[in-house]
Amino acid sequence: MAQFILNKTALRCNYEYLKTLFEKNNIQFAIVSKLLCGTKSFLKELVDLGVQEVADSRVTNLERIKKINPDIRTIYIKPPAKRSIRKIVQYADVSCNSELQTILWLNEEAKRQNKIHNVLIMIEMGDLREGVMGDDLMSFYASIFELEHIHVIGLGTNLNCLHGVMPSSDKLVQLGLYKQLIESKFGQKIEWVSGGTSVVLPLLFRQQIPASNNHFRIGETLYFGNNLFTGEIIPEMRNDVFRLKAEIIEITDKPKVPFGELATNPSGEQFSFEEEDYGQTVHRAIVDIGILDVNPDFLFPINPKIKIGAASSDMLVVEIPADPGYAIGSTIEFRVEYMAALRLLNSFYIEKIVVEDPS
């Protein structure tokens, strides 16, 4: 079984960097745990960092967080489905909302549970995923701010999540202006302006975040240490929080080009080859992981001499150097990007392991 490994030392390094950054800028932040897909051992490592808020798009994951530490504030970060209302009120201290009817259901359920449920109103700022249109915000707020069991804790937005619309100072200023308009018209305090996510961090580095934006929801940069504007690693952070190890189950020299009539494979791919590849052989290995578990496009061998070839549902073919260190039963290690980690963590067939840096 392939192993997906979390390095707790690297995770803590990245968390402490972000914590210091946000404290310096008087910003409250939640750690987004949805990438971890509810993996209990990994969630426990997150809680052990000392996080105060955890955000997730699966209510079952928030339930697990509450069981580990009931004092952590939990945030449900997508518009709730009707069938999930009861559990969201039970396990999420805050939920992100963009539909009036849903908030009315939350109010009814919060009354049944004798709770006040916090709502973060999501506003559409151009990426065209979830969010109330700006022109409708005042009437939307007017319909909910007096609900007995609902407290509007803030306004939020998501950018670069669907169509790739990038954040800008202008968009974040606009979000802050919505806060001012509501407070002026309704005499109500808006505690959070939650316009910050991992993709917004580069604006914070350049001091281009308006003071009104006082809440972030951070996931990808914690786990990968990356600057989502440049694609580079932030110098003070680490990109080795996650690693994949897969075992070699076959190793041999084989022709570089398949022989026989070629057709479309089960994944819908049809291969073509360069003329000079015919008659060539390569030293190659098969490892025990496939497209059922991961998209190979987001895998990168730690050894730069290894080249990823093709994959089927349960096996991945790689070209490897003729090195005595590679044999049946030995492992090949891969760096992973976000989309690879997401599928690996969601797979029942991958062993999840926690390690720390060697002393």
TrEMBL record:
<dbReference type="InterPro" id="IPR001608">
    <property type="entry name" value="Ala_racemase_N"/>
</dbReference>
<dbReference type="InterPro" id="IPR000821">
    <property type="entry name" value="Ala_racemase"/>
</dbReference>
<protein>
    <submittedName>
        <fullName>Ornithine racemase Orr</fullName>
    </submittedName>
</protein>
<keyword id="KW-0663">Pyridoxal phosphate</keyword>
<dbReference type="Pfam" id="PF01168">
    <property type="entry name" value="Ala_racemase_N"/>
</dbReference>
<feature type="domain" description="Alanine racemase N-terminal">
    <location>
        <begin position="7"/>
        <end position="226"/>
    </location>
</feature>
<dbReference type="InterPro" id="IPR029066">
    <property type="entry name" value="PLP-binding_barrel"/>
</dbReference>
<keyword id="KW-0413">Isomerase</keyword>
